[in-house]
Amino acid sequence: MNSRTPPGPIEKRWENTKFEMKLVNPANKRKYNILVVGSGLAGGSAAATLAELGYNVKCFCFQDSPRRAHSIAAQGGINAAKNYQNDGDSIYRLFYDTVKGGDFRARESNVYRLAQISVNIIDQAVAQGVPFAREYGGTLANRSFGGAQVSRTFYARGQTGQQLLLGAYQALERQIDAGRVKMYPRTEMLDLIVIDGKARGIVTRNLVTGQIDIHIADAVILATGGYGNVFYLSTNAKGSNVTAGWRAYKRGAFFGNPCFTQIHPTCIPVSGDYQSKLTLMSESLRNDGRIWVPKKQGDTRKPQQIAETERDYYLERIYPSFGNLVPRDVASRAAKRMCDEGRGVGPTGLGVYLDFGAAIERLGKQSITERYGNLFEMYERITGESPYEVPMRIFPAVHYTMGGVWVDYHLMSTVPGLFVLGEANFSDHGANRLGASALMQGLADGYFVIPYTLGNYLASNPLEKITEAHPAAQAAKVEVDNRVKKLLSINGNRTVDSFHRELGKLMWDHCGMARNAKDLLDAAAKIRDLNAEFWQNVNVLGDAEDLNQSLEKAGRVADFLELGELMCIDAADRNESCGGHFREEHQTPEGEALRDDQHYAYAAAWEYKGDDHPAKLHKEQLYFEYVKPSQRSYK
Amino acid sequence: MRLTLNIWRQKSPVDKGRMVPYTLDNVSEHMSFLEMLDVLNEQLITKGEEPIAFDHDCREGICGSCGFVINGVAHGPRRGTTVCQLHMRSFNDNDELFLEPWRAAAFPVLKDLIVNRSSFDRIIGAGGYISAPTGSAPDGNAILVPKPESDMAMSAAGCIGCGACVAACPNASAALFTSAKIAHLGLLPQGQPERHSRALHMVAQAHEEGFGNCTNIGECEAVCPKGIQLENIARMNRDFLTGAVLYRDPQAEAGAG
Q1: Using CB atoms and an 8 Å cut-off, which of residues 124-143 of chain B contact chain A?
Q2: Structural domains in chain A?
Q3: Using the beta-carbon criterion (under 8 Å), do A131 and B78 form an inter-chain contact?
Q4: Domains of chain B
Q5: What angle do CA A163, B149, A175 make, to 5 degrees?
Q6: For A279-318, what is each residue's pLDDT tens digit?
Q7: Of A122, A274, A378, which is closest to B61 when you measure between CB atoms?
Q8: Which residues in chain B land under pLDDT 50?
Q9: Pairing relation of β-strands B69-70 and B96-100?
């Protein structure tokens, strides 16, 4: 695997790469057609920036407006190594924390670049009018976040993702209004067009009219988010899906570390079978909330009736130096252990308390309202309970996928001309993402990396002129058309959602917070059977030439079924525990993740070999020249 | 609980559309309104009927995709809540509910409860931004922003663009939506250079899209799930008026060197 990681001292690598990259003359940029699929932080910022530079951009999203992309739901904040708080932060420390937090499964050069760029993102967002929280003197405010001992997180109440996305969206709308971006809302990418080994276009379906179109271009950028919805229940938006990335995989792009999933520790527990999604409560709540369970098993008393001495503040007990602020994977597994011991709370026993009693006593209700008021309201709307009166109940839920399409240092996949940004790629977070780093990565990729690396690709790869009539483009269109018709013609007995729920349960039970080889391989086989049943027995009503939400879902679930199997295979193949990937066979005596650096210090990149052949594993060896691998300790 | 639901069904933009009654049993109070519709849709599919189409995505009240009128009120009976976060504990056994899409000429119905809100995007495109080319920004702390102004800007910026304000307004005015963006950016020092042209262009675009004028009725504020306030409209009017007085035609820039 050639990751195109530049040589030299790490702090010079990005600067040197930028200097060595070829440039496209300003007058020539408008001759290049670029497709950006997805309009979230990564796609929106990329489309706006590339258009500003002069490229001819088309941007696609399945939602009714680019402003709806799921980046909007990120609550907590965005990290940047500004050291405005004078508390010892630096680019090197953010780099160090991210490599360590990712449990030594990320590429050092990428992470260092991310830390360097983080400071520019804040400046850019402020200039766009993103209303970050301020101190009374008018300077930017910060807070600390899980996995960090410095205050480097910038935030806009509990709506940081919304405000950053609206900043990018407004920049994008400015370019749309100026005629430099053509926007295609309610349009879904259903295939990638590869000609002479290079990405040259996509096939889309208009979700209102059902029309299937070919779009030819000089390069394709996927910024299509994560695939947490393979678990059915997750904190992702209902529409979030893997289809674009999966279609690219089937056209030759390797898929990186598919099993690396982040389970977020602070979500509202499941309440019933009808549950359609899980709601995240921002991790920032852990700054002031204390997590506990009763010391006694099966204690069904109300939390107010359990005396201080009968409570187990288990994170503070087990991890005294990080306490409630341990990284997400550690906090999630600890919650699972408490519930497995029979000390979980709430009607299902699958929950732990997040208690603000002490913080309200210390800081006053007013301060807590200022910090978390909107989150408390959200919790009360959903559960009918007020966190001011009774502790919140929380439980881990699938939140983010560190895995994704494999990319090199230039964010290019194994298909030349296909670039992948943001959560959709596998790159910067290793086996576990730290809080407030997703927004940082999405915007770093879109605003500050792709404008350089795309130009370099275009300037160094002369491309033949092609049209929609090219046989490969026409063939891809026919395939998409046939697949749509096939889904509508099965007329089976089960709804799309029933397949999706069954897949989700298999994934959560066997490829969730704790995994073992036997269960994973069993699950892979069951998923294969479920996939076969899907194509025999799914019932999708309605027409192809119409707004048909069942049809949209069916196509996405079909791809999730294939992805789920690969995730289980990847998880079974990685005989170690690292970050969010916890294999029961590989743990320390205290139950912490036990890595095997000698055999598994690599990124797994899977190559599609046909529906009837197993995917082929390629390994990108990871080198740690700066941050020496050690057992992560938050004690 | 058991509910009677009268839901607007319309196959396509050109179809006439009509209310169709459904009954649903065993509704749990812990379900969200959209989960209740999911259950109904699963039953419809099993019976071979096409499910009810409605826009939704994050189901956390922030993406702004969802929204329809429940018994005459945009987003239903609970204040400050989108339909995805409205839970069935807000209703009673044997309630009869009427569900309709947003009604406004500038929001044409696409199917059932789904409308086309792309007019909102064009209002933003007309001027709802600060022109800040990537890479040109000064340090984040170079320009200080007083906390009270920053907080007010954030409150206005909380708009999710769902369109409830338009649906609730007898004039189908987009004044609350448009003014929220004008106020957000106009309150910040970074937004000053384009402050007046922004108001002129955004208001003109809203007019062109077919949204009505504001006559200070206040229904918009009452249904807004994010608590966007009417005072933003006053700010918009002030910026618009100043902009109209100060407006000059742009000058040609070429010729130097």
Answers
A1: 124-126, 128-141, 143
A2: 24-262+401-460 (3.50.50.60), 264-399 (3.90.700.10), 471-594 (1.20.58.100)
A3: no
A4: 3-111 (3.10.20.30), 118-246 (1.10.1060.10)
A5: 40
A6: 998 888 998 999 999 999 999 999 999 999 999 999 999 9
A7: A378
A8: none
A9: antiparallel
